[in-house]
Amino acid sequence: DWLPQSPPYYIGLWAAVNGIAALVLVGLAYYLYSKQRGADLRSNGVLPGWKAFGKSVLLGAIVVAAAFGLVFFVDYVFKTDFRVWVVTVKAFTVDKVWLALRYLPLFLVYFVANSIALNSFNRFTIAGREWVNTAVLALANSIAPIVLVIAQYWHFFSSGYTFDWFPGITSIWLFPVIVFLAVAAVISRKIYDATGNPYVAGFINAAVVTMIAVSNTLTMS
Length: 221
Prior knowledge:
Layout lengths: L5 H29 L15 H29 L3 E3 L2 E3 L4 H27 L9 H30 L8 H28 L2 H18 L6
Helix pairs in contact: 1-3, 2-6, 3-5, 3-6, 4-5, 5-6
């Protein structure tokens, strides 16, 4: 089977659909509103040029390799890894890398689109503070899975059953998704502030989330 892990596939497919929807919405917003008010796709990083785009890919690959290199170093020297609540970042075998590459396009669609939407079209301050805007975007990024999880558990506690259209295991899958989406918004904003390029954070977030998902999921053979 080309995609032998169910959770990364279903979450990745859901993410990709949302990413395409986000691109359609920001595209419409740009042509119907922002363009008439002087917005420029080159100045906000959406069209950085092929050379800058290539550098974005290279920088993203270097950052991801360095980050997981640290994970392997800690695993080798201290026999430990990074586990916080529902997120587990651990060492993995080389076959997981090739497997992750199969799922990566789905997550790339979402995280690149998400970074463009957050940084190139939603840069403003609230109450004169940029961090408030970042916090609002982090909440907006994760609000959909938060609502789904709350609705599922509320229904379960009140009726004793989960929703027929929303399997219980899916609620469990969404707990790390909530964390990933909130943290991704913060990371995306910080990297964009330093580079002015929305693609760097998109590549990094997509690769890291895909690798974490694949390395923590059972592979059906």
